[in-house]
TrEMBL record:
NCBIfam families: egtD_ergothio (TIGR03438). Its EC number is 2.1.1.44. This is Histidine-specific methyltransferase EgtD. GO terms for molecular function: L-histidine N(alpha)-methyltransferase activity. The gene is egtD. Residues 20-319 form the Histidine-specific methyltransferase SAM-dependent domain. InterPro entries: EgtD, EgtD_Methyltrsf_superfamily, MeTrfase_dom, MeTrfase_EgtD-like, SAM-dependent_MTases_sf. It holds the Pfam family Methyltransf_33. It comes from Paraurantiacibacter namhicola. The lineage of its organism: Bacteria, Pseudomonadati, Pseudomonadota, Alphaproteobacteria, Sphingomonadales. Keywords: Methyltransferase, Transferase. One of its GO terms (biological process) is methylation.
Length: 320
């Protein structure tokens, strides 16, 4: 439910999530089949992503955690004292405490569209920081969000970790950054994780690990379609592929048909030729200039920037 108590997930008579069905049917009907990345994250997908953060090849989580752990003094120096930390997405049990510890905020406001994740992480945080007021808000942060009255007069620090901004193409990322600016207000600060462009081998390995965890994460989408949308996709004939798209500076995940296949979803027939793909996720990588440019386009002026010791990942502090 959203703030007004309205159901955010609309189910039809058969209990099918309409937004999921509409997105998948439209995405599979395009010349280049492509599906929005958000549908990768059902319960199984979210668990598989947690597993990904633990694999040796997937450096972003470790690199970002290193920055948050080592740069606490810098954060305390550059972030307004007594800020309300507004986290976009339910907090990670590792990263969020590192930030809160460093800056001793006046309040913590986690925003998430999923009430279950939100309540779980808010409870965990309250237990770790007994004196800290926690005000969870169940909302879609792609829109303007009305913050709780208790934090209205405090300085705001937005926190958007995990390089999730990299999942969006530029115009969507700019829309989101502008919404965040609207939600937090002029003069607010934003601490945002942005993964960096680096050699192809490192990038491909991070998204195509030897243990096959990322492949399972990707194929899980096809399984979910079969389960929830009455699909007949032959999952075992789809191979995971991570591609570097140099023009767009992004890693793309694809599901590649290993032979010509036919299947149906919600009674609608689809075919794939051998080698044809479903494009399931983008993960954009940034340079110093391209990262700054994106933030500026979204209404945020970069103030400080930190990278891990190996220079793989950046955390940027910007001001509205
Ligand atoms: C959660 C979107 C940040 O793009 O690195 C990891 C998702 N996909 N491996 C990323 C992901 C494949 C991840 N984000």
């Amino acid at each position: 439910t959203d703030q007004k108590g309205l159901k955010l997930v609309e189910l039809d008579e058969d209990g099918v999530d309409r937004a999921f069905r509409d997105d998948i049917l439209a995405g599979l009907s395009q010349p280049q089949k492509a599906t929005p990345a958000r549908w990768l994250y059902d319960d199984a997908g979210s668990q598989l992503f947690e597993d990904i953060t633990q694999i040796p090849e997937y450096y972003p989580t470790r690199a970002e955690t290193e920055i948050l752990r080592d740069r606490g003094d810098d954060f305390a120096r550059h972030i307004s004292p007594g800020s309300a930390v507004v986290e976009f997405g339910s907090g990670s049990s590792v990263k969020t405490p590192l930030l809160l510890q460093a800056i001793a905020p006046a309040a913590y406001v986690p925003l998430d569209i999923s009430g279950d994740f939100l309540r779980a992480s808010a409870a965990e945080l309250s237990a770790k920081f007994p004196g800290l007021p926690v005000h969870p808000v169940e909302a879609d942060f792609n829109r303007l969000v009305e913050l709780p009255a208790e934090v209205r007069d405090l300085p705001k620090l937005g926190f958007f970790s995990g390089s999730t901004i990299g999942n969006m193409i530029a115009h969507t990322a700019v829309d989101l950054l502008r919404s965040m600016r609207g939600t937090l207000g002029e003069g607010a600060q934003l601490l945002i994780g942005m993964d960096l462009v680096k050699d192809r081998e490192t990038l491909i390995a991070a998204y195509d690990d030897a243990g096959g965890v990322t492949a399972e994460f990707n194929r899980n989408l096809a399984r979910r379609i079969n389960r929830e949308l009455d699909g007949t996709i032959p999952v075992d004939k789809l191979r995971h592929e991570a591609r570097w798209n140099d023009l767009h500076a992004r890693i793309e995940m694809h599901l590649v048909a290993e032979e010509a296949i036919e299947f149906s979803v919600c009674g609608k027939a689809f075919t794939m030729e051998e080698g044809e793909t479903i494009h399931t996720e983008n993960s954009h990588k940034f340079g110093r200039r391209s990262g700054n440019m994106l933030l500026l386009a979204g209404g945020w002026t970069p103030e400080e920037r930190w990278t891990d010791a190996e220079g793989r990942y950046s955390v940027v502090l910007a001001r509205a």
